[in-house]
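Researcher: I'm preparing a figure for a lab meeting and need a structural model of a single chain. I don't have an experimental structure, so a prediction will have to do for now. The sequence is pasted below. Please return the structure as tokens so I can convert it later.
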Amino acid sequence: MPEPILSVQDLHTHFLTDNKEVPAVDGVSIELHKGEVVGIVGESGCGKSVTSLSIMQLVPNPPGKIVKGEIKFKGKNLTYATEKQMRKIRGNEISMIFQEPMTSLDPLFTIGNQLIEAIRIHQKVSKKDAKNYSIELLNLVGIPRASEVVDEFPHQLSGGMRQRVMIAMAMSCDPEVLIADEPTTALDVTIQAQILDLMRNLNKEKQTSILLITHDLGVVAEMCDRVVVMYSGKVVEEGSVREILKDPKHPYTKGLIRSLPNIRTTEQKLYSIPGTVMRPSLDQVGCRFAPRCEHSFDSCWEENPKLLKQESGRQVRCFLYDEEKSERGVTSNDKSYT
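Model: Understood. Here is the structure written out token by token.
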């Protein structure tokens, strides 16, 4: 298989609090190949966004810091790149659509000013050409009155319109990698479909590799080639979309899929995984999902499970798939899970 365009290996990003050091991202490894769409899914607080900010070297320091790991883009190590080096890469080769468009756009400058600046930083074009291209991009992402909106301020636009401006900005320099952090969260269903179509076309026509962070498994099913499931700062399962959605292995992934509404049933109450996400800590021992897992046994509380690679190539972090541990600790009912 060819070298990945983006490779994250054993990434550890910690945050310093008043009391202790919290590992928000704890040993995450992800690979993204040319023209591939990889989805990262999981509950809020599982480390999805911090992983993407770490790749872009945008983790606020203090209190956050990459303490270990390697981030490679086209073979170049970005882990300890200087701010000057990252400025050449951000926006030009790796772009990001942020989750909160209102806090990502400067309220003191017009939409046009912000788009023009982004274009002219990376492309040698005149201000007039950059403005014309800005209007073209706004039309492309489905913004009506683009020639007027270009002279308006962020507060004059709705949340969905601001999100589309952020997508236009991310697409302005034809990046090789696009990191999309919940790109459709603020949009209604019709606009969601338009934005996903835009991203799909970008992927198909220009072979743009996309790292899509979302909690919406419907979007994952429609857009992604592979899925990485994260829980409490760790990758708990990875595989193709078909494998993950049709035959999930990890109890957490099973719970996520089980919680989806099913139009074929008449049940009024939706399933939810019991308990809450455990706050990660450096001295924690055992599986982080064990307190919420109905299949946990002694090993789950005493040892940290490794990410096990299966014959098909998919990976799962669970003792249910460790032959030695499962034979010793899983009941007959639980073995049907494997």
